[in-house]
């Protein structure tokens, strides 16, 4: 009798294990089946290792890439280059490309019918980008390496995502490893890279100062053009004289912001790079952005002083800076950027919805409002409103020294304070020189095009 009881228990336990395994398989079949089916050795969906189904379109329905016996691309060569890092390549060299990252959506797999052969054309994948705006951004970079990102900080839709250098996917060049012209060509600089932020980082130092130094708005700073801070000599492009906090941001006074960083201390500075989302890895429809990286402890107060003005060991991901600018405009938080608008049957019936996602509160609302007004006064008092005709814009420029080149990297980030056009942006022109003029000009060109197009 005892024997029978123990055998019953063993049988019961085995049955439970079988049931648990079946449930786990069923769950994973529904949640991950599309990825299994889009595995590159599936000969139903891949020809010679190349995905052989589907179309990628921009938000207006312009076809960026389509499969019919082979992949063909948009007729316009500027658009092909400008959208290279969003569309990707069939071989998967560009890791962020739709042809690689969203292969499961292009195949049209679903758990009930599988990758059905009746709909052998696969699916239409509509991206949020506007191909014409991307092409304008690519042309505005004018052969420089760099990136341009523009997105709607209320909905999260990425309007423009351009990374340079690029190449023509319809006619891919032979690229050798040491080819300077194509250095980093497979990297999507907006999502996957990190660069010294230069003075754009003063926005983060400013946020920390607003929330931690109670008399910050009554403070004045005296800049002689070359100031001892933390045992190092911090230089400015000129002697800024005596400035208050807002004026210090307007003229981008290194001496003032280096002093503030040292006063705030390394742990507060580190806390603000985390709270403001810079060190986050955001998920852009599953594509993880590169987290920004800092080391405020490396070289004592001297290192902290340089870090506070965006040099030192600071490395910032352009996309996270764009989101930060969106949060400044949006009362302290912003939508998380997304690149997929929706998928559809080739006949046009949609098979997915766009669902907005929000960041956490990156800044207190009052801090965001103060920074917003300071970034608008940057334009008013320094960059020149006439350089941005018709745009109600707030911005911060950056000119970052880099070890690898004599020419500085030019940055410009900010937002439109316009409920009809809630856009945030980031521009990086590598070797562009002055942030305000080189990157500011690119920003204006692209924003004018985006606003004209109704975004
Ligand atoms: Zn100064």
Give a brief rundown of this model.
By secondary structure, the protein is an alpha+beta fold. It has a domain at 192-335 and 361-452: 3-Layer(aba) Sandwich (Beta-lactamase). The protein contains 15 helices and 18 strands.
Task: Note down, in words, how this protein is organized.
- There is one protein chain.
- By secondary structure, the chain is an alpha+beta fold.
- It has a domain at 192-335 and 361-452: DD-peptidase/beta-lactamase superfamily (Beta-lactamase).
- Helix content is 36%, strand content 18%.
- The chain has 15 helices and 18 strands.
- The chain has helices spanning 2-37, 77-82, 84-87, 98-101, 103-107, 131-141, 189-192, 202-212, 245-250, 254-264, 266-275, 300-308, 318-329, 365-383, 435-452, and strands at residues 46-47, 50-51, 55-57, 63-67, 71-73, 124-127, 146-152, 158-164, 220-223, 226-229, 232-235, 241-244, 283-284, 287-288, 340-344, 393-400, 409-416, 423-429.
- The strands form six sheets. The chain has a five-stranded mixed β-sheet with strand order 5-4-3-6-15, with no helix packed on it.
- A hairpin with a 2-residue loop joins strand 13 (283-284) and strand 14 (287-288).
- The mean pLDDT is 91.
- The structure holds zinc ion (ZN).
- Residues 223, 236, 240, 253-255 line the site of zinc ion (ZN).
- Zinc ion (ZN) binds at residues 223, 236, 240, 253-255.
